[in-house]
Amino acid sequence: MKRISVFQNHKQPDVLIEEGYFTILFIEKGFLKFWLETCEITANQGDLIINTPSAVQKLSYISEDCQVIGLKYSLDYLKEIKTLNNFHKTFASFEYQYLPIWNLTKEEQDILTGLFRKLKQRAEKQRAHLFAHQLFNLTFTELILELIDMGSKQDKTVFQNYNRAEYLALQFLILARDAYKEQTKLEYYATQLAVSIKYLSETLKSITGKTAKEILIELRMGQAKLLLSTSDLDITEIAYELSYDSVSSFSRSFKQIEGISPKEYRDSYL
Protein backbone atom coordinates (compact mmCIF):
# COMPACT_ATOMS: atom_id res chain seq x y z
CA MET A 1 0.00 0.00 0.00
CA LYS A 2 1.49 3.31 -1.04
CA ARG A 3 1.92 5.82 1.75
CA ILE A 4 1.25 8.79 -0.51
CA SER A 5 -0.31 9.13 -3.96
CA VAL A 6 -0.77 12.20 -6.14
CA PHE A 7 -3.47 11.97 -8.77
CA GLN A 8 -5.69 13.92 -11.14
CA ASN A 9 -8.88 13.32 -13.13
CA HIS A 10 -9.74 10.04 -11.39
CA LYS A 11 -13.40 9.02 -11.40
CA GLN A 12 -13.28 5.96 -9.12
CA PRO A 13 -14.53 6.82 -5.60
CA ASP A 14 -12.26 4.23 -3.96
CA VAL A 15 -9.24 5.88 -5.60
CA LEU A 16 -10.18 9.38 -4.49
CA ILE A 17 -11.11 8.67 -0.87
CA GLU A 18 -9.74 5.59 0.88
CA GLU A 19 -10.17 4.46 4.47
CA GLY A 20 -7.12 5.09 6.62
CA TYR A 21 -5.81 7.99 4.53
CA PHE A 22 -5.83 11.75 4.72
CA THR A 23 -7.21 13.05 1.42
CA ILE A 24 -7.04 16.52 -0.13
CA LEU A 25 -9.13 17.01 -3.29
CA PHE A 26 -9.52 20.14 -5.40
CA ILE A 27 -12.43 20.29 -7.86
CA GLU A 28 -11.10 21.87 -11.06
CA LYS A 29 -14.27 21.27 -13.05
CA GLY A 30 -17.74 19.79 -12.55
CA PHE A 31 -18.92 18.61 -9.14
CA LEU A 32 -19.18 15.59 -6.87
CA LYS A 33 -21.35 14.58 -3.94
CA PHE A 34 -20.50 12.70 -0.76
CA TRP A 35 -22.21 11.59 2.41
CA LEU A 36 -21.29 12.90 5.85
CA GLU A 37 -23.24 10.42 7.96
CA THR A 38 -26.74 10.78 6.42
CA CYS A 39 -26.30 14.31 5.04
CA GLU A 40 -25.39 14.54 1.35
CA ILE A 41 -23.00 17.41 0.58
CA THR A 42 -22.08 18.81 -2.84
CA ALA A 43 -18.59 20.06 -3.72
CA ASN A 44 -18.48 22.31 -6.78
CA GLN A 45 -15.81 23.69 -9.09
CA GLY A 46 -13.26 25.65 -7.06
CA ASP A 47 -13.97 23.81 -3.79
CA LEU A 48 -11.45 21.88 -1.72
CA ILE A 49 -12.40 18.69 0.14
CA ILE A 50 -10.51 17.63 3.26
CA ASN A 51 -10.91 14.05 4.51
CA THR A 52 -9.16 12.54 7.54
CA PRO A 53 -8.76 8.83 8.42
CA SER A 54 -11.47 9.08 11.09
CA ALA A 55 -13.94 10.97 8.89
CA VAL A 56 -17.17 9.36 7.71
CA GLN A 57 -17.20 10.52 4.10
CA LYS A 58 -18.36 8.37 1.19
CA LEU A 59 -18.52 9.61 -2.39
CA SER A 60 -21.99 9.14 -3.85
CA TYR A 61 -21.83 10.85 -7.25
CA ILE A 62 -19.18 12.23 -9.62
CA SER A 63 -20.35 14.33 -12.58
CA GLU A 64 -19.30 13.30 -16.09
CA ASP A 65 -17.24 16.48 -16.55
CA CYS A 66 -15.67 16.32 -13.09
CA GLN A 67 -11.92 16.93 -13.00
CA VAL A 68 -10.05 16.70 -9.72
CA ILE A 69 -6.47 17.02 -8.64
CA GLY A 70 -5.19 16.05 -5.23
CA LEU A 71 -3.42 13.52 -3.07
CA LYS A 72 -3.92 11.00 -0.30
CA TYR A 73 -1.36 9.99 2.31
CA SER A 74 -1.05 7.89 5.44
CA LEU A 75 0.26 8.64 8.92
CA ASP A 76 3.29 6.50 8.09
CA TYR A 77 4.30 8.98 5.41
CA LEU A 78 4.13 11.86 7.90
CA LYS A 79 6.63 10.08 10.14
CA GLU A 80 9.27 10.80 7.51
CA ILE A 81 8.76 14.55 7.86
CA LYS A 82 9.29 15.10 11.58
CA THR A 83 9.48 18.88 11.30
CA LEU A 84 5.95 18.88 9.85
CA ASN A 85 4.21 16.94 12.62
CA ASN A 86 3.04 19.88 14.74
CA PHE A 87 2.02 21.85 11.66
CA HIS A 88 0.05 18.90 10.35
CA LYS A 89 -1.91 18.62 13.61
CA THR A 90 -2.97 22.23 13.07
CA PHE A 91 -3.99 21.50 9.49
CA ALA A 92 -5.93 18.33 10.41
CA SER A 93 -7.85 20.23 13.07
CA PHE A 94 -9.38 22.50 10.42
CA GLU A 95 -11.38 19.59 9.04
CA TYR A 96 -13.00 19.26 12.46
CA GLN A 97 -13.70 22.97 12.90
CA TYR A 98 -15.46 23.50 9.60
CA LEU A 99 -17.47 21.51 7.13
CA PRO A 100 -15.07 19.36 5.09
CA ILE A 101 -15.45 21.72 2.10
CA TRP A 102 -13.39 24.88 1.81
CA ASN A 103 -14.36 27.77 -0.44
CA LEU A 104 -11.16 29.21 -1.91
CA THR A 105 -10.33 32.50 -3.57
CA LYS A 106 -9.01 32.46 -7.14
CA GLU A 107 -5.51 33.21 -5.83
CA GLU A 108 -5.70 30.31 -3.36
CA GLN A 109 -6.96 27.98 -6.10
CA ASP A 110 -3.99 28.90 -8.31
CA ILE A 111 -1.51 28.33 -5.47
CA LEU A 112 -2.91 24.89 -4.67
CA THR A 113 -3.21 23.62 -8.23
CA GLY A 114 0.35 24.77 -8.86
CA LEU A 115 1.61 22.83 -5.85
CA PHE A 116 -0.43 19.72 -6.71
CA ARG A 117 1.05 19.70 -10.22
CA LYS A 118 4.53 20.29 -8.85
CA LEU A 119 4.06 17.29 -6.52
CA LYS A 120 2.87 15.19 -9.45
CA GLN A 121 6.00 16.12 -11.41
CA ARG A 122 8.22 15.36 -8.41
CA ALA A 123 6.57 11.95 -8.02
CA GLU A 124 7.13 11.12 -11.69
CA LYS A 125 10.83 12.01 -11.50
CA GLN A 126 11.80 9.92 -8.48
CA ARG A 127 14.69 8.32 -10.37
CA ALA A 128 15.70 11.31 -12.45
CA HIS A 129 17.03 13.54 -9.68
CA LEU A 130 19.59 12.84 -6.97
CA PHE A 131 17.41 14.53 -4.31
CA ALA A 132 13.99 13.71 -5.78
CA HIS A 133 12.64 12.26 -2.53
CA GLN A 134 13.76 15.24 -0.46
CA LEU A 135 12.35 17.70 -3.00
CA PHE A 136 9.02 15.86 -2.99
CA ASN A 137 8.85 16.10 0.81
CA LEU A 138 9.71 19.80 0.71
CA THR A 139 6.93 20.48 -1.79
CA PHE A 140 4.48 18.50 0.35
CA THR A 141 5.53 20.56 3.37
CA GLU A 142 4.96 23.75 1.39
CA LEU A 143 1.47 22.52 0.46
CA ILE A 144 0.51 21.82 4.08
CA LEU A 145 1.79 25.21 5.25
CA GLU A 146 -0.21 26.96 2.53
CA LEU A 147 -3.30 24.99 3.56
CA ILE A 148 -2.86 26.02 7.20
CA ASP A 149 -2.80 29.66 6.12
CA MET A 150 -5.89 29.18 3.94
CA GLY A 151 -7.68 27.23 6.66
CA SER A 152 -7.20 30.04 9.16
CA LYS A 153 -9.24 32.26 6.82
CA GLN A 154 -12.18 29.89 6.39
CA ASP A 155 -15.50 31.04 7.82
CA LYS A 156 -16.80 28.72 10.53
CA THR A 157 -20.31 30.14 10.21
CA VAL A 158 -20.79 29.16 6.56
CA PHE A 159 -23.06 26.13 6.39
CA GLN A 160 -25.18 24.94 3.52
CA ASN A 161 -28.98 25.03 3.62
CA TYR A 162 -29.86 22.36 6.18
CA ASN A 163 -32.96 22.21 8.32
CA ARG A 164 -32.61 22.63 12.09
CA ALA A 165 -32.21 18.92 12.81
CA GLU A 166 -29.61 18.40 10.05
CA TYR A 167 -27.74 21.53 11.16
CA LEU A 168 -27.63 20.28 14.76
CA ALA A 169 -26.41 16.87 13.59
CA LEU A 170 -23.59 18.43 11.55
CA GLN A 171 -22.61 20.71 14.44
CA PHE A 172 -22.44 17.70 16.74
CA LEU A 173 -20.38 15.64 14.28
CA ILE A 174 -17.85 18.43 13.84
CA LEU A 175 -17.68 19.13 17.59
CA ALA A 176 -17.42 15.42 18.40
CA ARG A 177 -14.56 14.80 16.00
CA ASP A 178 -12.66 17.63 17.67
CA ALA A 179 -13.34 16.65 21.28
CA TYR A 180 -14.20 12.95 21.48
CA LYS A 181 -10.84 11.92 22.95
CA GLU A 182 -11.16 14.17 26.00
CA GLN A 183 -14.91 14.73 26.22
CA THR A 184 -16.74 11.44 26.63
CA LYS A 185 -19.80 12.72 28.53
CA LEU A 186 -22.94 13.74 26.62
CA GLU A 187 -23.44 16.67 29.00
CA TYR A 188 -20.49 18.46 27.40
CA TYR A 189 -21.95 18.29 23.88
CA ALA A 190 -25.47 19.19 24.98
CA THR A 191 -24.13 22.24 26.81
CA GLN A 192 -21.98 23.35 23.88
CA LEU A 193 -24.92 23.03 21.47
CA ALA A 194 -27.45 24.53 23.92
CA VAL A 195 -29.87 21.58 23.80
CA SER A 196 -30.89 18.83 26.20
CA ILE A 197 -29.19 15.44 26.10
CA LYS A 198 -32.52 13.81 25.25
CA TYR A 199 -33.20 16.18 22.34
CA LEU A 200 -29.63 15.80 21.04
CA SER A 201 -29.75 12.00 21.04
CA GLU A 202 -33.25 11.83 19.56
CA THR A 203 -32.29 14.26 16.79
CA LEU A 204 -29.11 12.38 15.95
CA LYS A 205 -30.98 9.08 15.94
CA SER A 206 -33.53 10.46 13.46
CA ILE A 207 -30.87 11.95 11.17
CA THR A 208 -27.99 9.45 11.39
CA GLY A 209 -29.63 6.31 12.73
CA LYS A 210 -27.24 6.43 15.70
CA THR A 211 -27.44 8.01 19.14
CA ALA A 212 -24.89 10.56 20.34
CA LYS A 213 -23.29 7.91 22.57
CA GLU A 214 -23.00 5.45 19.67
CA ILE A 215 -21.31 8.09 17.50
CA LEU A 216 -18.79 8.95 20.23
CA ILE A 217 -17.97 5.26 20.72
CA GLU A 218 -17.61 4.83 16.95
CA LEU A 219 -15.15 7.73 16.78
CA ARG A 220 -13.08 6.36 19.66
CA MET A 221 -13.03 2.89 18.12
CA GLY A 222 -12.05 4.31 14.74
CA GLN A 223 -9.12 6.17 16.29
CA ALA A 224 -8.20 3.11 18.36
CA LYS A 225 -8.02 0.95 15.22
CA LEU A 226 -5.98 3.60 13.43
CA LEU A 227 -3.47 3.83 16.30
CA LEU A 228 -3.29 0.06 16.70
CA SER A 229 -2.57 -0.45 13.01
CA THR A 230 -0.24 2.48 12.29
CA SER A 231 1.36 3.83 15.48
CA ASP A 232 4.12 2.64 17.80
CA LEU A 233 2.05 3.39 20.93
CA ASP A 234 1.48 0.40 23.18
CA ILE A 235 -2.07 -0.60 24.13
CA THR A 236 -1.84 1.10 27.53
CA GLU A 237 -0.83 4.39 25.90
CA ILE A 238 -3.66 4.11 23.38
CA ALA A 239 -6.19 3.49 26.16
CA TYR A 240 -5.18 6.65 27.99
CA GLU A 241 -4.87 8.61 24.74
CA LEU A 242 -8.58 7.91 24.25
CA SER A 243 -9.44 8.80 27.89
CA TYR A 244 -10.31 5.30 29.07
CA ASP A 245 -10.02 4.83 32.84
CA SER A 246 -7.95 1.68 32.45
CA VAL A 247 -6.52 -0.71 29.90
CA SER A 248 -9.05 -3.34 30.93
CA SER A 249 -12.02 -1.04 30.27
CA PHE A 250 -10.56 -0.14 26.87
CA SER A 251 -9.92 -3.79 25.98
CA ARG A 252 -13.39 -4.81 27.14
CA SER A 253 -15.08 -2.06 25.13
CA PHE A 254 -12.96 -2.77 22.04
CA LYS A 255 -13.69 -6.50 22.10
CA GLN A 256 -17.40 -5.91 22.67
CA ILE A 257 -17.61 -3.76 19.53
CA GLU A 258 -14.97 -5.29 17.24
CA GLY A 259 -15.25 -8.91 18.33
CA ILE A 260 -11.51 -9.27 18.99
CA SER A 261 -9.08 -7.83 21.53
CA PRO A 262 -6.86 -4.80 20.79
CA LYS A 263 -3.82 -7.12 20.78
CA GLU A 264 -5.45 -9.47 18.27
CA TYR A 265 -6.37 -6.51 16.08
CA ARG A 266 -2.80 -5.17 16.18
CA ASP A 267 -1.32 -8.61 15.50
CA SER A 268 -3.41 -8.86 12.32
CA TYR A 269 -1.36 -5.94 10.90
CA LEU A 270 2.05 -7.38 11.75
What can you see in these coordinates?
With 270 residues, the chain is an alpha+beta fold. Helix content is 52%, strand content 17%. The chain has helices spanning 13-16, 75-79, 85-97, 106-124, 132-151, 164-179, 186-193, 197-208, 212-230, 235-241, 247-258, 262-267, and strands at residues 4-8, 22-29, 31-36, 39-44, 47-51, 57-62, 67-73, 101-103. The radius of gyration is 19 Å and the shape is globular. The mean pLDDT is 82.
Quick overview of this protein structure:
By secondary structure, this protein is α+β, with helices and mostly antiparallel strands. Helix content is 52%, strand content 17%.
Layout of SSEs?
Blueprint: E1 4-8, H1 13-16, E2 22-29, E3 31-36, E4 39-44, E5 47-51, E6 57-62, E7 67-73, H2 75-79, H3 85-97, E8 101-103, H4 106-124, H5 132-151, H6 164-179, H7 186-193, H8 197-208, H9 212-230, H10 235-241, H11 247-258, H12 262-267
Antiparallel strand pairs: 1-7, 2-5, 2-7, 3-4, 3-6, 5-8
